[in-house]
Amino acid sequence: MLLQGKRALILGLANNKSIAYGIASAFKAQGARLAFNYVGDAIKKRVEPLSEELGGEFTFQCDVCEDQQIADAASLVQEKWGGVDILVHSIAFANREDLNGRFIDTSREGFALTLNISAYSLTGICRAFEPLLAPGSSVMAMTYHGSTEVIPGYNVMGVAKAALECSMRYLAYDMGAKGVRVNAISSGPIKTLAASAVGGLKGIFSEIEEKAPLRRNVTTQDVGGLATFLASDLASAVTGEVIYVDSGFSHMGI
Q1: Are 251 and 232 in contact (CB under 8 A)?
Q2: Which residues are catalytically annotated?
Q3: DSSP string, 3-60
Q4: Does the model's pTM come out above 0.90?
């Protein structure tokens, strides 16, 4: 098994249709040990049954807007596991009103909130967990093509994903001296809870089936396969990369 015994933290599990769930399932199949965060009691009620289903060893409170909660989570993980081998950042949020209409109408508060949760949180998490990451560890974040091209309705989230990708490259440089790899996975659109808030994505699914080289949309299992590769020793020299898993759609000039 590619990940036998590796300790993987999955941040951002929402439900059994989420990308984080697909990644966790793939990790489990390859022998990884799993743990999951939650934000508040309402999310905890959803995460704990999923953790049990996936064989998670524990869940923990971690609101990435709160530095103290991130620090407390790192302390708990150190107590439970002693260290971490894989860190998955599958976290993003924007107010629904900032994903409707024109990007120019994004509020200052909405812009700051989206960038804080969706981009800065990767840096905050990496800083807190860096002492726990052994040489050869893998950190990965989820992004989308709206970071480089205009996707109507993606709006401020596209800006946040661009910041996330740039942050990932600087983190890869900072943490590379210790042998820690940091990458981003750019998935094609998947019908997840998060995607449902982006009205502009609804028409893209049929476009992908018609025009992508593979003529199909991607699944959370497809993303899980790439994540497993990045988490494994097979990707020991891969860092600072944005890797697409989108049936080739992003390469089409149409």
Answers
A1: no
A2: 144, 154
A3: TTT-EEEEE---STTSHHHHHHHHHHHTT-EEEEEESHHHHHHHHHHHHHHHT-SEEE
A4: yes
